[in-house]
Write a structure and sequence with these properties.
The structure is a single chain. The chain has 11 helices and 12 strands. By secondary structure, the chain is α/β, with parallel strands linked by helices. It has a single domain, classed as Alpha-Beta Barrel (TIM Barrel), CATH 3.20.20. The protein has a 10-stranded mixed beta sheet with strand order 7-6-5-4-3-2-1-8-9-12. Bound molecules: iron/sulfur cluster. Iron/sulfur cluster (SF4) binds next to loops.
C-alpha cells in the first residue's frame, strides 16, 4: 500500500454516547435529536490497514471514548500497525485498569477534560463528574513509568476563566505535562452563546489571566497552550486543518471536521454572531471502503482545494506586499467552503 495518499491526522469518533450531562455540551443541548452509538467493526476496518501511513489517530468525538467496549482492542491494533495513538477522555472511567491499558499499549497522549480548577466550578458545569475523582485518576496515570503524555484540557468560559492559572497549578500537582485551553467554539443554542469567552473584543481579563497561567507554567514545568480569544478575519485555514486531517464520524462517515458532522437526526443548528442556521451533515463517504477512497473522493478534494487556494493566496501575499504600492488594495483571498463561513474556527477561535 506504499504511496497511497492519506490524511496526516485522523480523528475517530469511537462513540457519541457519554455518561455526563455537561451544561455547555452540544450533546446536552441537542439531546432530543442526538444519536447515541458506538463505532462499528466495519468502519474501523476501513481505517486500520492505512494506520501505518497516518501520523496520528486520535480516538475521540462528541462522546466519551472509554465507554466503547472495544476501545483498547482498537488502540492496540493501531499501535501494532505503527501509528501514534491518542485519546481525550472525561476521566471518569480512567480507573486502574484503564491506566494499565493506556500504559501497556504505549498510548502517546491522553488528554483529560475538566471544566474548572475548583471542584465547585467543575462539578456544576460537568454534571455527573467529580473533579476530586478525576484528579485522583490523572494522578494515578501520571505515576506510571513509562506513560503517555498527559494533558489537562479546559474549554474556557466566563465561569471558569478566572481559574486558568489555578488549572496550571492543578496540572503540576497531579503530575500532568500540559494544559490546553480551547474555546467553546461551536454554539448550538442562544443560551450557550453567553458562555463564549472570545469575541472581536474579548473579556479584558483574558490577557492578564493568560500571562499569569504562562508564568505559572514556566515556574512549575507545565506547558501551557491557550487559544486566541480575539477573533481575526485573516485566518486562511482553520485550526482543524482539513487540508491535512480527516474526521471519522461514529457511523463511519468521513467528514472535514467535528463541527460539520454532529451525530444528530435531521441536522443541527449553529449560532454565529447573532445569526442562526440549520446545517445538514457534510460527509465524503463511508470509510469502510478504506481511508484513501474517501480522502481522494471528489467532494473531499473539492473541500480541501478551497482551503489550499487560500493557503496559496497567503504565500502569494508576501510577494504582492513587496510589489504593490502602499496605497493599492490587495485582492481578497479565495472564499472558504460555504459551510465554514459561519464557523468561529475560521476566525481563529
Ligand atoms: S472552518 Fe470550521 S467548519 Fe470549516 S473545516 Fe474548519 S472547523 Fe470545520
Amino acid at each position: 500500500m506504499a504511496g497511497v495518499q492519506v490524511p496526516r491526522i485522523v480523528q475517530v469518533e469511537v462513540t457519541s454516547a457519554c455518561q455526563l450531562r455537561c451544561t455547555f455540551c452540544a450533546r446536552t443541548a441537542l439531546a432530543d435529536r442526538w444519536i447515541n452509538a458506538h463505532l462499528s467493526r466495519e468502519a474501523f476496518s476501513g481505517i486500520l490497514p492505512y494506520a501505518r501511513q497516518i501520523e496520528l489517530v486520535h480516538l475521540q468525538g462528541w462522546g466519551e471514548p472509554l465507554l466503547h467496549p472495544r476501545l483498547w482492542d482498537m488502540a492496540a491494533a493501531l499501535k501494532q500497525a505503527g501509528c501514534r495513538v491518542s485519546l481525550t477522555t472525561n476521566g471518569v472511567l480512567l480507573d486502574e485498569e484503564a491506566v494499565r491499558e493506556a500504559c501497556r499499549l504505549g498510548l502517546d497522549l491522553v488528554a483529560v477534560s475538566v471544566a474548572g480548577a475548583r471542584p465547585t466550578t467543575n462539578d456544576a458545569l460537568r454534571v455527573g463528574s467529580s473533579l476530586e475523582r478525576i484528579a485522583a485518576n490523572v494522578s494515578r496515570l501520571c505515576e506510571q513509568k513509562p506513560r503517555p503524555r498527559v494533558v489537562l484540557i479546559m474549554q474556557l468560559m466566563p465561569p471558569n476563566l478566572p481559574e486558568l492559572p489555578e488549572l496550571v497549578s492543578l496540572a503540576a500537582e497531579v503530575g500532568a505535562d500540559e494544559v490546553v485551553a480551547p474555546h467553546l467554539d461551536y454554539i448550538p443554542t442562544p443560551e450557550l452563546d453567553g458562555l463564549r469567552a472570545f469575541g472581536w473584543q474579548p473579556d479584558p481579563r483574558v490577557s492578564d489571566l493568560v500571562s499569569e497561567a504562562m508564568r505559572r507554567g514556566e515556574e512549575l514545568g507545565v506547558k501551557v497552550h491557550v487559544y486566541e480569544s480575539r477573533l481575526r478575519d485573516d485566518v486562511l485555514v482553520c485550526a482543524a486543518d482539513p487540508v491535512h486531517n480527516l474526521w471519522i464520524t461514529v457511523d463511519g462517515q468521513a467528514a472535514p471536521c467535528a463541527y460539520l458532522a454532529l451525530p444528530c437526526r435531521d441536522g443541527f443548528p449553529r449560532f454565529f454572531e447573532g445569526t442562526h442556521e440549520h446545517l445538514r451533515r457534510l460527509t465524503f463517504g463511508d470509510v469502510s471502503g478504506g481511508v484513501p477512497r474517501v480522502w481522494q473522493s471528489r467532494p473531499a478534494r473539492s473541500f480541501r482545494s478551497a482551503f489550499s487556494r487560500r493557503q496559496q493566496w497567503g504565500q502569494l501575499g508576501y510577494l504582492l506586499d513587496a510589489t504593490l504600492s502602499p496605497s493599492a488594495t490587495p485582492p481578497a483571498p479565495p472564499p472558504p467552503p460555504a459551510p465554514c463561513r459561519h464557523c468561529y474556527k475560521l476566525y481563529g477561535a
